[in-house]
Amino acid sequence: MKEKVSPFLKNIDSESIRRQYYINGTENPSAYSDPLMEDSHEVVKGLIHKYPNRALIKVSYQCASHCRFCTRIRQIGDPSGTLQENDIDNIVIYLMQHPEIEDVILSGGDPMYTPALTKILLQKIKTIESVKILRIGTRMPFQSPGSFSTPLLANLLQLIDEIGQTKPFYILVHIEHPDELTTETQKVLAHLRTLKVTLLSQTVFLKDINDSFDTLFTMFKSLYHLGVQPYYLYHCDNVIGLEHFRGDIAKEKAIAVQLREHLSGIACPLFVEDVENGYGKLPV
Ligand SMILES: *Cc1c(COP(=O)(O)O)cnc(C)c1O
Ligand code: SF4
Question: Quick one: which ligand is closest to 281's CA?
Answer without folding.
Answer: 1
